[in-house]
């Protein structure tokens, strides 16, 4: 279950349940240690037919280190898009990293055990209407 943090360039006060240091707390998009430029994120996603882009991992927790941590991102593409993307897919993390100002670990699929662990902490930063 993900919680919507912003839509097609229209920021909202999204909330994600984050698990850090043994105590659950709520992370709002305004509290993130990175800048989310909804317009640039929306452009990035629309140009690549990404229908939903979510954050997970340390960027949602107190242990995020702006100097060392990467930003974990899960992208959901429109049906059939990944079959046509080819090698361009491997540059998406770097391209998104320039948008958010941090190294990005970009993925479109997670191992089922990891997916189960992070599904409740996903913070959606873009979702196609």
3D architecture notes:
- The protein has 129 residues and is α/β, with parallel strands linked by helices.
- The protein has a single domain, classed as Beta Polymerase, domain 2 (2-Layer Sandwich), CATH 3.30.460.10.
- It has four helices and seven strands, in the order E-E-E-H-E-E-H-H-E-H-E.
- The chain has helices at 38-47, 82-85, 92-100, 112-118, and strands spanning 3-4, 15-20, 23-28, 50-56, 71-77, 104-107, 123-127.
- The strands form two sheets. The chain has a five-stranded mixed sheet. A two-stranded antiparallel ribbon has the order 2-3.
- It is globular.
- Mean pLDDT is 84; it is low at 1-25.
The CATH class label is: Alpha Beta
Strand content: 25-35%
How many DSSP helices? Answer: 4
Largest pleated sheet: 5 strands, mixed
- Number of beta-strand segments: 7
- Into how many domains do the coordinates divide? 1
What is the correct CATH architecture? Answer: 2-Layer Sandwich
CATH topology: Beta Polymerase, domain 2
Mean pLDDT: 84
Q: Identify the overall geometry.
A: globular
Order of helices and strands: EEEHEEHHEHE
Query: Which homologous superfamily in CATH is the superfamily?
Result: Beta Polymerase, domain 2
* Strand arrangement across the biggest beta sheet: 1-7-4-5-6
